[in-house]
Write a structure and sequence with these properties.
The chain is an alpha/beta fold and 157 residues long. The protein has a single domain, classed as Trna Endonuclease, Chain: A, domain 1. The protein has a five-stranded mixed β-sheet with strand order 1-2-3-4-5, sandwiched between helices.
Length: 157
């Protein structure tokens, strides 16, 4: 998939193995899409959602960004940035959920038909980022595939 200038796919369903410092027990989490941008020198975490934005998505993204920075970031890399893609969002709920997060996180809407996105990326990152409507179009295929898997899991329950 073409993401734009400087992007390299690190992994789809990228595993993060977190070992508890007290007990030594580990847990595994999976990032939907993990990219590295060699121009920005930072990881880009993408979390795909099949439902409208909820405040807990911000907390999950904050966790993913911290985990990637702790486990994957190398000397010279900048802190990771996150993008939550979901079919809809409330502007107020989104702003309030992201207000206390220090890491750069964006929430964008996608549609599986005509592409409609909100907000523009920060000016300093714009040259290295892909065209957001094109990205949403490409990612909508992944979301549709996730819907099929999700529906299959529900029917098995």
């Amino acid at each position: 998939m073409e993401m734009g200038r400087g992007f390299a796919l690190v992994g789809r369903q990228f595993p993060l193995k977190i070992v508890d410092q007290e007990t030594g027990e580990d847990q595994e989490f999976f990032i939907d899409l993990l990219f590295y941008n060699y121009i920005l020198r930072r990881f880009v975490v993408i979390d795909l959602k099949i439902e409208d934005f909820k405040p807990e998505f911000a907390g999950k993204m904050g966790f993913y960004l911290t985990a990637v920075d702790e486990l994957e970031r190398q000397p010279g890399d900048e802190s990771s940035i996150g993008l939550v893609l979901c079919p809809g969002r409330s502007k107020t709920v989104t702003e309030w959920a992201l207000r206390s997060i220090d890491a750069p996180v964006a929430v964008a809407r996608y549609t599986t038909g005509d592409v409609v996105l909100t907000e523009t990326p920060p000016a300093e990152m714009k040259p290295a980022l892909p065209d957001l409507p094109a990205l949403a179009s490409e990612l909508s295929n992944i979301v549709e595939a996730a819907n099929v898997v999700y529906d299959d899991e529900l029917s098995e329950s």
